[in-house]
Write a structure and sequence with these properties.
It comes from Xaviernesmea oryzae. The protein has 7 helices and 7 strands. The protein has 200 residues and is of the alpha/beta class.
């Protein structure tokens, strides 16, 4: 799918921050971990909520959120490989682990979370935690692999990160059954705790 904008400056020249879109962020107790979504709000629904809950108070959080009445996906979706909003780059640059939360279409698979990003160790650790909690994952998905070095998830200190692509139907179930969303959140948080020593 083609999107209207391929960089933040062009988007910001047309749409108004605080009305058409929002940017939320906080540093957390450990800025070495950033949990973020470049496609939050009405762009990829529930991505912001999931990222926020995974970050909690411990980890840095960032969300770029669409807020148009319609057309958010076309108008406000800057591709991950081109996402260059300054605050996101600043927070990512301080982190040794960046985890980006995304929503994808079902593509005839309404259950499987597609794992992406260049950080193989962290990606597989998070995938293992999700699998052990009852979720289905694909560590070699057919698309949205997040392997491009310029992908926002790979813009941290280590130049490698993790990307989760959660299907639409699963995200919808998270709204109706928040306990299921919490199951995913807790699994990812447990994996992060095992990857990043306290106090980093």
């Amino acid at each position: 799918m083609a999107y209207r904008f391929s960089n933040y400056n062009d988007l910001a020249a047309v749409y108004q921050l605080g009305t058409d879109y929002f940017i939320h962020h906080r540093t957390g107790e450990q800025e070495a971990v950033l949990v973020m979504t470049p496609h939050g709000g009405k762009i990829e629904k529930t991505a912001s909520i999931i990222a926020d809950e995974i970050a909690g108070q411990e980890y840095a959080f960032y969300a770029f959120e669409g807020n148009l009445a319609a057309g958010n996906l076309f108008e406000l979706h800057i591709p991950s490989e081109e996402f260059d909003e300054p605050q996101s780059l600043d927070l990512a640059g301080k982190a040794t682990l960046v985890i980006a939360i995304h929503g994808r279409k079902d593509y005839d698979d309404a259950e499987t979370i597609w794992m992406g990003g260049l950080d193989t160790e962290s990606r597989q650790a998070i995938g293992k935690a999700l699998t052990e909690t009852g979720f289905k994952i694909d560590d070699d998905p057919p698309k949205f692999r997040g392997r491009d070095a310029s992908n926002i998830c790979n813009r941290g200190k280590t130049e490698k990160g993790v990307q989760l692509e959660i299907p639409f139907s699963l995200r919808q179930s998270f709204i109706a059954q928040p306990e299921e969303r919490l199951r995913l959140v807790n699994a990812v948080r447990a994996a992060i705790a095992g990857l990043v020593p306290t106090g980093m």
